[in-house]
Amino acid sequence: MPSAKSKPPLATVPRARLDDAAAPRQCRLARKVAKLACSGLFNEHRWRLAMKLVGPWVSGYTRRVGITLKLLNLPFEHLPFHAYREAERVKVFSPMARVPALQLDDGQVLIDSHAIVDYLDSIVPAGERLMPASGPERVRAMQWVGYGCACYDKVARYCDELMLRPDAHRLAHLQAGYRAQLESGLRVLEAAQAHPWLLGSRISQADIMAVVAFQSASVVLPPTRESEAFPRLAALAQQAMQLTAFSSTLPDLEELQASGLIGANHGV
């Protein structure tokens, strides 16, 4: 029998008393969170566990997501697995071996860059979002994003010809068609008049996709011709490269060469 002064075993302590014992700790934690919130240091979306971004920067859509994460100051781990060369590693996150794939902090995975950046906008304060919520400004942003994606898709199709089809079996008319469509799309983006960004004073998804497409086009178009033919886009890209989100995600020259996209003497 326990003495009058001894404490009963934990299993015999009523649940209500256990809850009472934990209450002071919970109150202290709540007070700390409230204090941080009042000081402006607490930001709920930045307390999330780090997400995992799967895909190499040589993938323009993976780069789009990486730039977005960095511009929004959202923590993430980058897993630069290549969909062609490391398909099994990619399939752990994306059963179709498609990149980009973003594993969220709760373990769920998104695999489409449009869905991913839309989700990321939804977890940050309205003033930090990279797409306008509504109205004519959103329509303009969607137009520029659409052209940027279309241009990048033509670059990707052209590069698939280089990577996947042997020289003797490449279709010259397809490559010429891709280049013609790419240049047409770049001319539409070049005609945008806003400054300093495509929507004016704030950077948006329109700028991200325009820069990703324009810089990716250097794989297809000679760099000197590219800058001369599209001076506004060249200036936009140069401005974007002043931001770490863009400069730190530029595909590595060795990675491009290893992918078979460019020769040893080509620059980006």
TrEMBL record:
Keyword terms of this UniProt record: Transferase
This protein's name: Glutathione S-transferase family protein
Boundaries of every GST C-terminal domain copy: 134-261
Cell inner membrane found in the keyword field: no
Gene Ontology, cellular component aspect: cytoplasm
Gene Ontology MF terms: transferase activity
Species in which this protein is naturally found: Paraburkholderia acidiphila
Gene3D superfamilies xref list: 1.20.1050.10, Glutaredoxin
